[in-house]
Amino acid sequence: MLRSVRWLGPIVVDALLVVLFCIIGRRSHDEAILAGLLRTAWPFVTGLAVGWIASYLLYRRRRETEPFNGMRLRPTGLVIWSSTLVVGMALRVAGGQGTAISFVIVAASVLALFLLGWRAAIRALD
C-alpha cells in the first residue's frame, strides 16, 4: 500500500494539477475549456511524463538506499517541474502553439507553485 502512495498518488496529483493549469489558462483567455483542452494539455502532460521517468532514472542512478518517493521536493519535484515546463514549451513550439515570454514566465511560476508547492507543504507538515 505504501509503495502505491509513493507512486500513484503523486502522479495523479501532478497530472490533475497540470490539467488544472491548462484549464485556468484556457479560462483566462475566454477559450472553450473542453473543446481545446487536449490540444493545450498534451505538451505539458507529456513533459510531466518525461519528468517522472527522468526522476526515477536519476533515483536509480544514485542508488539510494531508501525507496523512490514521488513526494520528495528535491530532486524529484524539481526534475518533474523543470521537465514539464521545458518539454511542454518545446512541444508547443513543435505543434505550432505560442510561447510568448510572458506565457513562459506565467507557466514557470504556476507550474512551480502547483508541482513544487504541494511537495513543500507535505515536507513542512512532516
Automatic annotation (TrEMBL):
Chain ranges passing through the membrane: 7-26, 32-58, 78-95, 101-122
Domain of life of the organism encoding this protein: Bacteria
Keywords of this entry: Membrane, Transmembrane, Transmembrane helix
InterPro entries: DUF3054 (IPR021414)
Protein name (record): DUF3054 domain-containing protein
